[in-house]
Amino acid sequence: MDWSPYYPAFMDPKAQNTALKGKATPLTKPVTIADIGCGFGGLLVALSPLLPEELILGLEIRTQVTEYVQDRISALRSQNSPPAIISTQRAPNQPSPLSQPYGSDSLGTKQYVISPSDGHNEPQLAATEASLKRITNIDKIKSWRDSDNALESWLLELTDAQLQELQGVDGIDSIEDNDITTSPDDSPSTVPAYTLASLLEPNAGMGKGTHNSSSRTQGPYQNISVLRANTMKFLPNFFTRGQLSTIFLCFPDPHFKARKHKARIVSATLCAEYAYVLRPGGCVYTITDVEELGKWMRDRFEAFGKYAGGVGLFERVEIPEEGREGEWEGRGREECRVGVLVRCIREETEEGKKVTRNGGRKFVSVWRRRDDPGWPDDA
């Protein structure tokens, strides 16, 4: 499988000439998250800034929906591409901190993420940005907007004096150290856990405060893509054994008629395929607004792999109640990740928003893949 057309920003620069030889161009990292039946891409877009170090793939069988998500991702990449050159205008004889290497403190500056109090209030945003330009004495400020064109944050390098002056500016909700590890006053960071990609990264070597340089230079939404595919038939064709860390099954078709139950996305056969592509310790997240379907999926995952006197290959994971996901931020990395991702599937998917508007219920379950069991005859 050649993934380079789907994640061009993650093509391995040392192997790009392999395309000229008729070979697939490898990526710098594999796809580790799959959203099966991604719909209109709401979850993909929400996960991209939360997990910038992981490649996320949406799988959708409907042609027109797939094309819509492809266009949506392409537009987001274009709108949020970082400029090649950041033009600045400063006072005479005053050096620009942006001319220094990232993280340099030779001028006494540090980089901060400044969040507005209301990303949709354009008059207030304009007034706040004018204050930022006046205080920092620069003409252009890098900013990020989400898919609804709401301003998410400004990115600025500030001296201690500028930081202190910004504390009283109207329209600013928070000012956070972009290094993540500490806040501007060197106390433990108060950034909500669901904004810390380092806490959500399950792989070894990606501890708190670490970032791959690609996430700084490539811009957001480069780590998500969508592929038209029939997952029920071809899932193992796209992923190797144990490649994925997370699988999402969000609001699948309930197929109410008994004769159509075989078409449901969760069955004993498909549980075997999910277990094949999911690494030990990886999780499957399921959500539906149909109680009977929620019980169906729970029963299949709980029963899969059980043998006499043993346990199944999937264990159920405790999840937070709806609206209380933020309370899981201090429970540790794994619990934090579960809380954040459960919040996303409840609130960020198009179907989840629809159920909320209609006052419906959401039935969520999370299943962690256990290690492969030993052979029965092994001592």
From TrEMBL:
Its EC number is 2.1.1.33. It is found in: Nucleus. Pathway: tRNA modification; N(7)-methylguanine-tRNA biosynthesis. It catalyses: guanosine(46) in tRNA + S-adenosyl-L-methionine = N(7)-methylguanosine(46) in tRNA + S-adenosyl-L-homocysteine. S-adenosyl-L-methionine binds at residues 37, 60-61, 230-231, 250, 349-351. Keywords: Methyltransferase, Nucleus, RNA-binding, S-adenosyl-L-methionine, Transferase, tRNA processing, tRNA-binding. Residues 85-105 are annotated as: Disordered. Pfam families: Methyltransf_4 (PF02390). SUPFAM superfamilies: S-adenosyl-L-methionine-dependent methyltransferases. Its main location: nucleus. InterPro entries: SAM-dependent_MTases_sf, Trm8_euk, tRNA_(Gua-N-7)_MeTrfase_Trmb. The active site is at residue 253. Belongs to the class I-like SAM-binding methyltransferase superfamily. TrmB family. Forms a complex with TRM82. Catalyzes the formation of N(7)-methylguanine at position 46 (m7G46) in tRNA. This is tRNA (guanine-N(7)-)-methyltransferase. It comes from Stereocaulon virgatum.
